[in-house]
């Protein structure tokens, strides 16, 4: 599969697992926004704590500008390999992207993810 142009860094598997766990737990105890339009709105409103983008989105234009928007708005973002993995954590078939608006009681996991992302993006 061709390298997606919107993927700006590689997410290690251990981190991806943590991200997917956070997504699932946030879906259960906190609040998430699904669907690219909802994700964009949550970023622009300053509600996003973490944006998660799938790497296998076609066409890539669907999520292409999300990393840039996150960077402009100083919102954390991360990637997971598959839309299906992301979707299954929030009760849908597949998700191109989602935004964690409230990570519920998952403060520690969130902090670990953010600090690991900071290391990767250096």
In total, how many domains does the architecture comprise? 1
Strand content: 15-25%
CATH level-two architecture: 2-Layer Sandwich
Q: Write down the oligomeric state.
A: single chain
Structural class: alpha+beta
What does this molecule look like?
The chain is α+β, with helices and mostly antiparallel strands and 122 residues long. It has one domain (13-120): 60s Ribosomal Protein L30, Chain: A. The protein contains five helices and four strands. The protein has helices at residues 13-29, 36-44, 66-72, 83-88, 107-120; strands at 31-34, 50-54, 76-80, 97-102. The chain has a four-stranded mixed beta sheet, with helices on both faces. Residues 18-107 form the Ribosomal protein eL8/eL30/eS12/Gadd45 domain. This is Large ribosomal subunit protein eL8. One of its GO terms (molecular function) is ribonuclease P activity.
Short description, anyone?
The protein is an alpha+beta fold.
Structure characteristics:
122 residues, alpha+beta, 60s Ribosomal Protein L30, Chain: A
Topology:
Layout: H1 13-29, E1 31-34, H2 36-44, E2 50-54, H3 66-72, E3 76-80, H4 83-88, E4 97-102, H5 107-120
Parallel strand pairs: 2-3
Antiparallel strand pairs: 1-4, 2-4
Helix pairs in contact: 1-5
């Amino acid at each position: 599969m061709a390298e997606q142009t919107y993927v700006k860094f590689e997410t290690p598997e251990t981190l991806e697992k943590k991200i997917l766990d956070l997504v699932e737990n946030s879906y259960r105890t906190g609040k998430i926004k699904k669907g690219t339009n909802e994700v964009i709105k949550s970023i622009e409103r300053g509600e996003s704590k973490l944006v998660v983008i799938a790497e296998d989105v076609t066409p890539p234009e669907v999520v292409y500008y999300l990393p840039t928007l996150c960077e402009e708005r100083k919102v954390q973002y991360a990637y997971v390999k598959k839309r299906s993995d992301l979707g299954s954590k929030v009760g849908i078939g597949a998700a191109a992207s989602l935004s964690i608006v409230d990570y519920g009681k998952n403060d520690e996991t969130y902090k670990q993810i953010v600090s690991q992302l900071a290391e990767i993006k250096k």
